Amino acid sequence: MSLPHTRPDLPVDDAASPSQAVCARAEVQRVRWLTGLSQDAFARTFSLDPDALREVEAGRARPNATFRAFLKVIARDPGAARRAAAGA
Q1: Its pTM surpasses 0.90
Q2: How far, in Å, are 2, 53, 87, 88 from residue 27 at the CA level?
Q3: Among 52, 10, 16, 3, CA closest to 32
């Protein structure tokens, strides 16, 4: 059995300087871990596509600008983000 080929972590923004670069996987995991939720619970709670969340956390996809903006809202005020997602 062979192990899957790993890809290097994708930066959130290709235009960022090396000192400002942020790994997309790390940013999403950091915000999710701050909430204490599993991937599925995080996706459900904030009305996110669970497959997209898994792909970003696995380092296979880069979050789009909307996803990144919502992550910032979740990190700053999870309660407000939860209420906004529930009203969507």
Answers
A1: no
A2: 29, 12, 25, 24
A3: 52
